[in-house]
Amino acid sequence: MASLQRFFFLSSLIIMAAAATADSYVASRESATRRSVSDNGLARTPPMGWNSWNHFHCNITEEVIRETADALEYTGLAKLGYQYVNIDDCWGEYDRDSQGNLVARVSTFPSGIKSLADYVHGKRLKFGIYSDAGSKTCSNTMPGSLGFEEQDAKTFASWGIDYLKYDNCNDPGTSPKERYPKMGAALLNSGRSIVFSLCEWGVEDPATWAGSIAHSWRTTGDIFDSWDSMTSIADQNDKWASYAGPDGWNDPDMLEVGNGGMTREEYVSHFSIWALMKAPLLIGCDVRSITKDTLEILSNSEVIAVNQGPLSGGRVAVVLWNRGNSQAMITANWSDLGLLSSTRANVRDLWAHSDIGIAQGRLNATVDSHACKMFVLTPQ
Fold first, then answer.
1. In the 8-state DSSP scheme, what is residue 130?
2. CB atoms within 10 A of CB 130
3. Short-list 128, 131, 155, CA closest to 51
4. Euclidean distance between the first and the last CA atom of the chain, given in angstroms as a whole number
5. Does residue 26 carry a pLDDT above 70?
6. Tens digits of per-residue pLDDT, 266-302?
7. Is the pTM for the entire model greater than 0.90?
8. Beta-strand (E) ranges in the chain?
9. Residue 282 and residue 256 in contact, taking contact as beta carbons nearer than 8 Å
10. Smallest Cα–Cα separation from 144: which of 133, 160, 156?
11. Residue 294 phi/psi, 5° resolution?
12. Which positions make up the signal peptide (predicted)?
């Protein structure tokens, strides 16, 4: 299993744990006879960055993208690892040009995509774009890449694209298993190393087959900025925990932290769970006007470290998550976490940024409604 990751359902109380060492990743997919996207060395940890869709939807312009790149830099988020600046749907003209190429929408991206990519690269950030494995994208406002995979991959490479999110709308009725490998192969042949983010919404259980063609795969439908949506998606994604690792990552969709539909404690839970699940951490709010609370959540370097690196020395990350409507005591027994009952462990609180003492046999915490506490246990 790529990481020891478990949900323990105790009524509405959940203990979630993950442990991994540098040696513990085990391939869950056949790979001996294929050339894989993992050969390009990208996304060996879950990608981190920003995506335009959750906040802006189709209301994107080159000015918004430039200002977002600036904001990632001046807020310090870029230094924490948020490196991808990704445009989602609606960036292109309705039709291809006379040579069959995708072209940027003149009214919103008058300088063109290459110029924008150059600007982002000038910030020492990386630039991502969006397309679709169908005839049109999900907005129905621009062409998809079905039947144009090689041509579009070469276009993306010529523009300096570093990341492609590839959606699943307006398909001709064929399986994603037939359509997505074509773009994966085209990207490998494009002459540029590009992260391939497969977005078929978990329709055909991509965790079981997408590791040979993509760096990440959506395991669920779209997230919405609500407690119910976030918790449902977390539950759905957990099913595929054993498939996450350096060969590819389960993607429960982008972060909603900071978009206003949840409380601060709910956003802390959202970020903690996504980090523990080794999900891509793609910010979905308007970074240009980010609040202090939102920045504090997204900037928690200790939580990010759990997401980005295997835990060495037998350490275990634990989230005690209260999904109930009132404060509750949650207990994580060592047997739940794969530890011997005699093990003594130092307990580090990742949100309080403090060591809280030594525990043996179990860990107890009082957790407010819809809140969580996140710890790293270091055996003595």
1. E
2. 25
3. 128
4. 25
5. no
6. 999 999 999 999 999 999 999 999 999 999 999 999 9
7. yes
8. 4-10, 13-19, 48-51, 84-86, 126-132, 163-167, 195-198, 216-218, 249-251, 281-283, 316-322, 328-333, 344-349, 354-360, 362-367, 372-379
9. no
10. 133
11. -65, -45
12. 1-22
Cβ atoms < 10 Å from Cβ of 96: 16
- Among 89, 171, 180, residue whose Cα is nearest residue 128: 89
Q: Which two tokens stand for residue 30?
A: 């056949």
The 10 Å Cβ neighbour count of residue 204 is 14
* DSSP helix/strand/coil, 242: helix
Question: Tokens 């060591």 — which residue?
Answer: 355
Collect all residues with Cβ–Cβ distance below 8 Å to 14 and sequence separation of at least 6: 7, 8, 319, 320, 321, 322, 323
Residue type present at position 147: G
With tokens 């041509």, the residue in question is 151
Task: Yes or no: say if 184 and 196 are a contact pair by the CB < 8 Å rule.
Answer: yes
Residue 179 burial (CB count, 10 A) = 22
User: What token pair was written down for 378?
Assistant: 């270091």
Compute the distance between CA of residue 218 and CA of residue 312 in angstroms, rounded to an integer. Answer: 28
Active site residues: 167, 222
Q: Kindly tell me if the per-residue pLDDT of 20 is higher than 60.
A: no
Buried b (16+ CB within 10 A) or exposed e, 323-332: bbeeebebeb
